[in-house]
Amino acid sequence: MKKLLILSPAFPIDESESHVIPFLQHVFLEFRAQYPEIELTVVAIHKPISKPYSFNGINVIPLNGNDVKYPGKLLFLTKAFSKIRRLHKKNNYDGILNLWYHELSFLTSWIHPKTFTWMLGQDVMKNNLTLRMFRPRPNKIMALSDYNNEMLFRNSRIKAHKVIPMAINESLFPELNTEIREIDVFGAGWLTPLKNYRLFVEVILELKKTFPYIKAEIAGTGPEETALKKFIHDNNLEDNVKFPGLLSHQQTLEKMNHSKVFLHPSTFEGGSTVYFESLFSGCQLVGTLPMMDKPIENFHCVRHKEDIVARMAALLQNPKPPKRITYYKMYEVCREIYDLYY
Question: The whole model's pTM is what?
Fold first, then answer.
């Protein structure tokens, strides 16, 4: 393989956008380092709004879709498909990799026989119109986790032929903090109903009864922020819960390195990067979704609020020494992608 074309809904324009799908940034930077002979080109479907540019040696061609909705999306898809076909005719790519299953995932299978789609999130759900209308062949799709694949089967009666799981770039992490961790509970993500941070603050309210000086932080921003801050105010939690705002990826890792427990209350994830980042940062991880198909040290999958409160109280009362936990290596992810095309 000499040339690989990647289709992604978004891609960072420079290093200042470390919060833009950080997992995929790290995957393809590692892929480029592992296979320097392969030229990578990313077609950024919706964001950024920009002219073509280079990101650390990766060619990026924005289509400037800007999350266009139907009916205008029909014209956009027609132009996008035509442009991708011209790109392939000019560059003769050895394969196409779609990130998430969307309309162009279906259309690009007409352009190249070696077209695969990595299903990374809510694209496995029933509300994905493309999945309902154009069922993919199992041998042309990969899931991000066993949970992700199980949800795909539940909603479409098909399963991906393989799981390529989440991994992290371990070189980005600060030295493991084995001393005092001043943040008792940390959370990070977009403040949307899907991420369910209302449950986070309700848990802190309950924990305050046992730990009156509990310190929690939620990094991120989003439409639920105002309602969450109102809940904090109404329940006298201003001294217990802080909102540091939208942090860079590196700042988020620093916060994890100073946290005892990472709480992730999301109602759905394809595969959560922060799960694996928090485990590698030495946190105890409490999550409401299973993600992983095998038991992993320091991960506590707890579904209901009462059980979450009880588990977290036990973790805070009897803290374990911080320890790095690794689930999957980034070089293994890159090799799995590489092997698709052989």
Answer: 0.85
